[in-house]
Design brief:
Elements: H1 2-11, H2 16-33, H3 58-72, H4 79-105, H5 112-132, H6 137-161, H7 173-182
């Protein structure tokens, strides 16, 4: 987002409407992905609370598509703007690919029958250990700690399998930093002046 915004700033005032849409998209993505955190300021689409939570929010996709269309419609007037427009379209394509990769990887990839079998196997092992081990406090504590450590590993695996939900979520800090960058006023871009060739 920061790279795309920097390229739009370099292009000039014609790209300001695209920057406005990019700011709306970034704010909406933060509010939609992390609803328990403070929402960013500004006007942007909000998900209906009655809709099921999902990273694939249709209005966000429409916003990103509008940005892509406007970027392709830029009409560069000189070689500088042609190179800038080309870079903007390349970055926009990479942004769209990244979004779809996030959407595809947002859901759980663990098969529940496999998970049940995986949990049943160590449960049987620890049950056998508990039945055959000497019945004194030290051995019982060792078995309990071993079972707890294995259970914590399974918990972490399940949490990391769904990075946009649960207690171990991806941090919103990078997107909030990008939003702060988008909110900075755009300064004038100084065009390099060509020196006349010596005669």
């Amino acid at each position: 987002m920061i790279e795309l915004d920097a390229q739009l700033r370099e292009y000039g005032s014609e790209a300001e409407p695209i920057r406005g849409l990019l700011r709306r998209y970034t704010a909406a993505a933060i509010a939609d992905t992390w609803p328990s955190e403070p929402a960013p300021s500004g006007v942007y689409p909000h998900r209906d609370p009655r809709q099921p939570a999902s990273i694939e929010y249709s209005e966000l996709t429409e916003l990103l598509t509008q940005i892509d269309v406007l970027a392709m419609r830029l009409n560069p007037a000189d070689a500088f703007h042609q190179r800038a427009a080309s870079r903007i379209n390349e970055t926009m394509s990479a942004t769209l690919r990244t979004r779809w990769m996030l959407i595809e990887s947002a859901g759980s990839t663990i098969d529940w029958p496999f998970l049940i079998v995986l949990m049943l196997w160590p449960a049987v092992i620890f049950l056998v250990f508990a039945l055959t081990s000497p019945r004194h406090a030290v051995m019982q504590v060792v078995i309990a700690l071993s079972a707890l450590s294995l259970a914590s590993v399974m918990y972490v695996i399940l949490e990391l399998d769904t990075p946009f939900s649960g207690t171990m979520m991806i941090s919103s800090t990078p997107l909030r930093d990008a939003l702060a960058h988008l909110d900075r006023p755009a300064g004038p871009v100084e065009m390099p002046q060509t020196q006349p060739a010596p005669r």
